[in-house]
Design a protein that fits this description.
The chain contains 22 helices and 17 strands. By secondary structure, it is α/β, with parallel strands linked by helices. It has two domains: about 65-360 and about 385-425, Methylmalonyl-CoA mutase (TIM Barrel); about 480-625, 3-Layer(aba) Sandwich (Rossmann fold). The longest helix has 23 residues, at about 370-395.
Length: about 625
Amino acid sequence: MDNRPLADLFEPADRKRWLGLVETALKGQDFEKKLVSRTADGLRIEPLYGPAEAVAQPVRGPGPWRIAQRVDHPDHEAAARQALTDLEGGADALVLAFAGAPGARGYGLTVDDAAGLEATLSGVMLPLIHLRLDAGARGLEAAGWLREMAAARGEDLSACDIDLGIDPVGVLAASGTLGAVWKDVAPRLAAAVADLDAAGFTGRAFLADGRPYHEAGAGEAAELGAVLATALAYLRALEAAGHDLARARDRIAVLLVADADEFVTLAKFRAIRRLWARVEQACGLDPKPLRVHAETAWRMMTRREPFTNILRTGMAAAAAGMGGADSVCVLPCTQALGLPDAFARRIGRNSQIVLIEESHLGRVSDPAAGAGGLEALTDQIAQAAWEAFQAIEGEGGIVASLSVGKVQRRIEVLRDARARAVASRKIPVTGATEFPNLAEKPVTVLDVPRPAPVRAANFGAGAAVACDPLPSQRLAEPFEALRDASDAALAKTGRRPSVFLANLGPLSAFNTRATFAANAFAAGGIEALTNDGFSETGGLAEAFRASGATLACLCSTDAVYAEQAEAAVRALAEAGAGTIYLAGRPADLIEPLKAAGVHAFLHVGCDLLALLDEALRRALRGATR
């Protein structure tokens, strides 16, 4: 009897043997096309990685990341209740989103002085929490109000963990305007830091914010490159004004966007620490852990089926936390619909509590260390980001690059490519482009009017810098616009635009494509009227007439299409079908079916957004006749 361990009875596994087995399984199909995927930046992701040597890098301090909650109610008293409820419910960090800041999403604190800030933070003990300001163009003003409030309270600023979030470069990128040229702005920023130092402030004054770039469509490398260039611009501004370089780098934090692609997000957060350490070394400094904030991605949020946002933000928060973020702010699931209520805020807060206290994801400082795939992805992202950073530096720095539109044009290419991928559902958005629910129930948000436009503060005096602003777009917006038009038709007529599914043959023949078609049309707000299938054209035509639809879509197998599709198309046209689609794309039948009257083919990889836009317009025209 052989008592050796079972593993010893097999040959050692290696990549060569594995590739041989893969080649057999693929049966001549291309390995690259079938098994190798790529990120938005074109970075290669292999199907299998071996173990890797763990790369030493700066990491988050001991313990889990901080759970940050937005405070963004325009009413001071309501905002104060939000803050205390969140802190009592498990959050240990607050993000004050001021009205007028891009991050306020149309709402935000209507604070104009230290008294308003005091009213908002009534009952909040600053030394016990982390506080970050998100004031947009009013960053310097908000910092002054906080300093006044702390002095009135008798708070020792050195004992408080505060990020002021001053980010004129981010304001320029998002709004297209800056109050003065950079050579005038930079000294004012440095002077503000000197005043804060004199008042005992030891936190981070500046924030290099990745949100404007991510919301405009940037990939990981472009976002990191812009963030790194922004942080370096602030470091140079402080050094030029005489600040000690070692202390100046402690005044800078970064904010990265956490997306639902968990591996890419995790690798991106690891990469920023390596990149900043490289900058520190180039400056002659010993690397220290960078303060890294995370906020879940605005562009992945949906107004339709908003509870699917919980899945996306939960995955993003986990990835950011495991990637080393110091604080994570989860956008409530109804953020795209309006000002979130207490329930949506609690869900966002509790998702992090579960990750930290039940899943214990914060117990390991760098859980991806040594994992072959994640180490390789981190390396690739860091290298691509460094190249993006060097391109910006070669253009004169981030302000100069934005001013001439170089950053915007590079991001535009990625944005257009991503939009095409969403339109064809190569990038699916659950609840919007995949598995839409035309019968979804309304979701509650707070009935609070948006605050009036806020006067933009200048970062200096003199000639203003201007550039093309980076757009803030959610991926689902084009499909949501179609759904809105469908809802308007339902409210006006009592009936949604509809498409008759012309199911041919038995259930086993049409079910797969009928399900596919119903899901696809629903993404544009078009209701699919289905049936048990037809074996002859007379019954098909009669059922179509009774449906009241003007659109029809044939659903069956290619074999059934070859026998029945042309006759079915003619019968539907005679019965009044103004537009006829066919689910699938049978190569040998395309031209004959077009000649018979098929308007378009609904298939995997088609431009679904364009098809639905046209179908909805045709359905609405037909409904008004």
